[in-house]
TrEMBL record:
InterPro entries: MetI-like (IPR000515), MetI-like_sf (IPR035906)
Protein name (Swiss-Prot/TrEMBL): Iron(III) transport system permease protein
Subcellular location per the Swiss-Prot or TrEMBL entry: Cell inner membrane; Cell membrane
GO biological process, one term: transmembrane transport
């Protein structure tokens, strides 16, 4: 390590920490009875089917909505984008819980309107839920690519007699195929790693079966299943890394001006998506709140969520700063940064399995808040690293050089110039880690101290007990936190949209 800066040393230690779960799982899986059997084949089939169908459904919904929000001059355009992107920020298990409770014999809709609606469960139900809550991945990645395209080629195609639909199909979509692929692979990754939706929909995917094995004290078999899931996740992550948005010289964006009936038709086409993904969960939670009141909700659950998430956000930022700076100072630092991103690709249920075994080996941390916070940090550290690195990259290096010429040491230049100027990225990264930790379900279920309930775990407990009405307050609080996360995620997009509009008006 000769010649490494302090940031490189810390980044190296953080990278080793990111690799820890894989090493733990390999050791734990060595005691598994079977590597792969006929039941594993069924679980693999269900998992791959959910992944593929989710990616397909997200693409079929996300691409048209990307075209709509990027090119069509709608009234209240910003509102349309926020509403259509909102499902991305809401935990999918909230949608699964409310749709499961609303539909089917004895469901809330059946009780209200008097006739039975179809049940939402199994592969079909899980695919519907996952599609509703992952299509914004495709919407946002495709829209970002669309907004960078010059409309001159489309106008030329129209001038040569090509219809609007044909020009989109032959001119626009081939130029944004990377953005579409990136978004669909993110949707597939989400479907692979999600635990709550398959569990509520009673679909045996890897995440649900791992949790069943954990509850049955089959940690070795859970570890073996976790490694099999990680292989699929690794393949999807590799494919996702091969795609990026379309890189073209920005030009004047395309603008389409619909008439009144076309606007009405577009609105009606989006209503089912908005109704199922946003309005129905809010309605069900509101209905339960009116019918059953607070349901003996203990405010300490909200405090537990907040306290653990604040700790995770603070620790993540402390570790992310040296990792981000090491990544900007050479190839070795970039490699270590990429290793830390492994944690974000590890599903929460897999992280929980690894750290439960680690806790059993180190009893002084087993079922402690420290172990839970460690899981949060390992999973969501890349969110903090990414925001801090992007902020640091935009700094004017001449300021630091000037400070060094005036006699400041590297440490003093960092403390007095770099650190204050990157504070915005640090706060944004901490906020993202905080919001994701608030919503994390499987790792919290497996690693939370005895009696330590959070909003997410309390919501799960009332689902398991069948006391659905008691989910109103924790569900609404989680939706509120998700809304804050959405505002943060769209902040950068709104600024970029403003700049494009401003630039095109000159």
């Amino acid at each position: 390590m000769t010649g490494w800066s302090k940031s490189h040393v810390i980044a190296f230690l953080v990278a080793l920490l990111a690799l820890l779960p894989v090493g733990v799982l390999l050791e734990l899986a060595s005691g598994a009875d079977t590597f792969f059997d006929s039941y594993n084949l069924k679980v693999l089939g269900n998992t791959l089917a959910l992944m593929v169908l989710t990616a397909l459904g997200a693409t079929l919904i996300g691409v048209p909505l990307a075209l709509l929000t990027a090119y069509v001059q709608l009234p209240f355009r910003r509102v349309w984008l926020i509403v259509l992107a909102a499902p991305l920020a809401m935990p999918s298990y909230i949608g699964a819980f409310t749709l499961y409770a609303a539909f089917g014999p004895g469901g809330e809709i059946s009780n209200l309107i008097g006739f039975t609606t179809p049940s939402v469960n199994g592969l079909a139900g899980a695919t519907l839920i996952m599609t509703l809550y992952t299509y914004p991945f495709v919407l946002l990645t495709t829209r970002a690519s669309l907004c960078s395209l010059d409309a001159s080629q489309i106008n030329a195609a129209r001038t040569l007699g090509m219809s609007l639909f044909a020009s989109f199909w032959h001119v626009v979509l081939p130029r944004v195929k990377n953005g579409i692929a990136a978004g669909s692979l993110l949707a597939a990754l989400y479907a692979l790693s999600d635990f709550g939706t398959p569990a509520i929909m009673r679909l045996d995917t890897f995440t649900r079966v791992i949790y069943v094995e954990y509850n049955a004290f089959g940690l070795s078999q859970a570890a073996m299943l976790s490694l099999q899931l990680l292989v699929i996740v690794g393949l999807v992550l590799f494919l996702e890394s091969r795609f990026s948005g379309t890189q073209e010289r920005p030009g004047r964006p395309l603008a389409l001006w619909p008439n009144r009936w076309q606007v009405s038709a577009m609105f009606l086409a989006t209503v089912p998506v908005i109704l199922l993904a946003i309005i129905l969960p809010l309605f069900i939670f509101g209905f339960w709140l009116i019918r059953e009141g607070s349901g003996n909700f203990d405010i300490s659950y909200a405090w537990n969520s907040t306290y653990a998430s604040i700790l995770a956000a603070f620790v993540a930022v402390i570790l992310a700063v040296p990792v981000a700076h090491a990544a900007l100072n050479g190839k070795t630092g970039r490699i270590m940064e990429r290793i830390t991103y492994l944690g974000f690709g590890v599903p929460g249920i897999v992280m929980g399995t690894a750290l439960v075994y680690l806790g059993l080996k180190l009893p002084f941390i087993y079922q402690t808040l420290a172990l839970l916070v460690l899981a949060y940090v390992m999973r969501f550290l890349p969110l903090a690293v990414g925001t801090i690195r992007s902020t640091t990259e935009s700094l004017d290096s001449s300021l630091i050089k000037a400070a060094r010429v005036l006699g400041a040491s590297p440490r003093e230049a960092f403390v007095r110039i770099t650190l204050p100027l990157t504070m915005r990225g640090m706060i944004a990264g901490a906020a993202l880690v905080f919001l994701e930790a608030m919503r994390e379900l499987p790792a919290t279920l497996m690693l939370g101290p005895t009696g330590f309930e959070t909003l997410a775990t309390y919501l799960w407990r009332v689902y398991e007990a069948g006391y659905f009405g008691r989910a109103a307050i924790p569900g609404l609080l989680l939706v509120l936190m998700s809304a804050l996360g959405l505002a943060l995620m769209l902040h950068g997009e709104r600024r970029a949209d403003f700049d494009i509009t401003k630039g095109s008006s000159r």
